[in-house]
């Protein structure tokens, strides 16, 4: 009777992987991931779990404006964290705001990923003049800060097309602006990985077999560059959320009728010295905690994928 070998499934390999082992033995990583997962779930379920709909004008009463949190004098039980200057429930706007901020963060990183990976693969694989040209373009892009590019483009678009059209396409504009401003981070990292990978035997074997350059780049080299991509993506999500919040705070991001975390902080900033501190404080705390846990996860991933740094 012959014994037949059954290859373990992906789930079984994952359960025995070093990645899961290190994760389950790192309390900071587990806590950060749990907090981030809670934020994502709450954001996705915002239409169903939020006390009110901040987009529904019929459910908003201006007489409820600037009510303090429920545990303070003058607060009402159904407004747990108080209300803003328009009478919207702060808790509801935070749930919807985190949904918008996370959406912009992930989509902007997707734009960065597509552009940066393509440029990095082409630059590292072809080398020569292609490499020099693409890296000079990346250097020029890096010489401008993300915020400066975003402020200039947002201001021009807002002045050219008006507030109404800008409000309609604000989310798309922010995704494209933040995405195009940050792609060189991916390109330079992927290029360095490709330069190391293309000298290995499996790439030479693929060339000998007659495979074309796109197939070699995307099917053979790219899968071996996923570790740095994952680390960069984690950090870039946090950066994108912060960029959106900064632009919204400056009045160049999302309009007031689309409450992101940045626009919520902007709305309440003018009231913070009049005593209505909760309008800015609670969205600000949520933003800080969200960015912090994402950065902690990014640091942990960087250490795990670099054995020289990881100490267990």
UniProtKB/TrEMBL annotation:
Presence of the UniProt keyword Nuclease in the record: no
Entry keyword annotation includes Disulfide bond: no
Q: Which UniProt keywords apply?
A: Cell membrane, Membrane, Transmembrane, Transmembrane helix, Transport
Q: Domain ABC transmembrane type-1: where?
A: 98-298
- What highest taxon heads this organism's lineage? Bacteria
Q: How does it sit in the membrane?
A: Multi-pass membrane protein
Q: Where located?
A: Cell membrane
Q: Name one GO cellular component term.
A: plasma membrane
Bilayer-crossing regions:
28-49, 104-128, 140-159, 165-183, 221-242, 277-298
Q: Which residues form a coiled coil?
A: none
**Main location per the UniProt record:** membrane
One Gene Ontology term from the biological process aspect of the record: transmembrane transport
Q: Which InterPro entries match?
A: BP-dependent_transpt_permease, MetI-like, MetI-like_sf, OppC_N
- So what family is this one in? Belongs to the binding-protein-dependent transport system permease family.
Q: What is this protein called?
A: ABC transporter permease subunit
Q: Which organism is it from?
A: Vibrio eleionomae
């Amino acid at each position: 009777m012959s014994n037949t070998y059954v290859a373990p499934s992906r789930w079984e390999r994952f359960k025995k992987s070093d990645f899961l082992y290190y994760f389950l033995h790192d309390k900071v990583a587990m806590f950060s991931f749990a907090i981030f997962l809670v934020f994502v779930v709450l954001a996705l379920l915002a239409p169903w779990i939020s006390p009110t709909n901040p987009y529904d004008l019929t459910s908003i009463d201006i007489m409820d404006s600037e009510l303090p949190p429920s545990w303070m004098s003058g607060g009402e039980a159904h407004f747990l964290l108080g209300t803003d200057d328009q009478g919207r429930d702060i808790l509801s706007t935070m749930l919807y705001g985190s949904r918008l901020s996370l959406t912009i963060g992930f989509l902007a990183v997707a734009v960065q990923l597509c552009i940066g990976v393509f440029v990095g693969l082409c630059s590292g694989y072809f080398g020569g003049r292609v490499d020099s040209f693409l890296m000079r373009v990346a250097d020029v892009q890096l010489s401008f800060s993300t915020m400066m590019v975003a402020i200039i483009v947002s201001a021009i678009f807002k002045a050219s097309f008006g507030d109404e059209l800008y409000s309609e396409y604000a989310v798309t504009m922010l995704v494209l602006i933040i995405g195009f401003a940050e792609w060189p981070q991916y390109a330079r990292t992927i290029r360095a990985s490709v330069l190391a990978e293309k000298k290995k035997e499996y790439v030479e074997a693929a060339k000998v077999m007659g495979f074309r350059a796109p197939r070699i780049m995307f099917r053979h080299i790219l899968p071996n560059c996923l570790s740095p991509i994952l680390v960069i993506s984690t950090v870039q999500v946090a950066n994108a959320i912060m960029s959106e919040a900064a632009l919204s705070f400056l009045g160049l991001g999302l309009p007031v009728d689309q409450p992101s975390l940045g626009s919520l902080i902007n709305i309440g900033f003018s009231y913070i010295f009049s005593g209505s501190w909760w309008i800015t404080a609670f969205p600000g705390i949520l933003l800080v905690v969200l960015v912090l846990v994402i950065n902690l996860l990014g640091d942990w991933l960087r250490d795990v994928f670099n054995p020289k740094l990881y100490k267990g």
